[in-house]
Design goal:
Ribosomal Protein L9, domain 1; 3-stranded antiparallel β-sheet; 36% helix; Ribosomal Protein L9, domain 2; alpha+beta; 4-stranded mixed β-sheet
């Protein structure tokens, strides 16, 4: 019997998957406990609609990430910092500061966890990478000065 799972079941499948199980297992265990529902025409149509909606949402997110990557690629942001006489900063420039500057200058919100950079502890220009989506990233630069 084919059933659609309402929750994750160990060794059987994840929520929303269509699986084939024995009739007794479905009728006596899965369906009465609302772990699964029988895969009739209405349930199958609902499953297909949910999958189509998920695919559409993923396509929209990916298109937005590609657009943002094109807008950010190769750009330079400027961060002001205080330093000692030899150009060594008091502290460092963090991913949080970089994310705030990107939002301020380009209007694109980026999580600080998605910014990959080396330790910035002196004046100068440093490259960093912004990961916008799986497989989509932009290479940018940060200029640290007074």
């Amino acid at each position: 019997m084919k059933v659609i799972l309402n929750m994750d079941v160990k060794d059987l499948g994840k929520k929303g998957e269509l699986v084939n199980v024995s009739d007794g297992y479905a009728k006596n265990y899965l369906i009465p406990r609302k772990i699964a529902k029988q895969a009739d025409a209405g349930a199958m149509n609902e499953l297909k609609n949910r999958e189509a909606a998920t695919a559409y949402r993923i396509a929209q997110e990916k298109a937005a990430a590609e657009k943002n990557a094109a807008a950010l690629e190769g750009k330079t942001i400027t961060v002001k910092a205080n330093a000692g006489a030899n150009g060594k900063l008091f502290g460092s420039v963090t991913s949080k500061e970089i994310a705030e500057k990107i939002k301020e200058e380009f209007g694109i919100e980026v999580e600080k966890k998605k910014i990959v950079s080396e330790d910035i502890r002196q004046y100068g220009t440093y490259p960093f990478t912004v990961k916008l989506y799986t497989g989509i990233q932009a290479q940018m630069y940060v200029f640290v000065g007074e």
